Amino acid sequence: MTVDERLTLEQGLLLVLLAVDTVLLALLELFFLPLRIGVVPLPVTVLVGAVTTPWLVWTTAKLVRPALSWVPLAVWVLVVFGFGLLGPGGDLVLIQDWRALLLLGASALPGAMVLGGGPGRVGRRPGRG
To answer: What gap in Å lies between CA 111 and CA 73, rounded to an integer?
Structure first.
């Protein structure tokens, strides 16, 4: 496969679908981050992000093309920072406490590890450099 090779229609549609899925998941994670039960903060969306962001990167590498596996991670970061800091109506949606750092670390770091060839090495076969 060369770099100049175009995506097939199915690959393009899958990439768009995965990007839209990334946007929806990032918004869900961002808007439900301040969730509390009584006075106890319950950031369950951190767990959602920790599972789905690396999964989206891995799925893009497997189903679309390994060279485009950065797209879900970039879309996630843009949505979280874009809507989080410049939210609807100019509101600050990304809360300024430990839960925001936990969301960023638990979602972006595993996604970057999958993207960078951490454990599991996306898109590479064992025994090949």
So the answer is: 6
DSSP class per residue in 22-57 = HHHHHHHHHHTTT-EETTEE--HHHHHHHHHHHHHH
Mean pLDDT of successive 10-residue stretches along the chain, which has 129 residues: 76 96 96 92 93 95 92 96 84 85 94 78 52
Backbone angles phi, psi at 31, to 5 degrees: -75, -25
Distances 48 to 19, 22, 92, 120 between C-alpha atoms, Å: 16, 12, 21, 20
66: DSSP letter: G
Instruction: Map tokens 């891995």 to a residue.
Output: 58
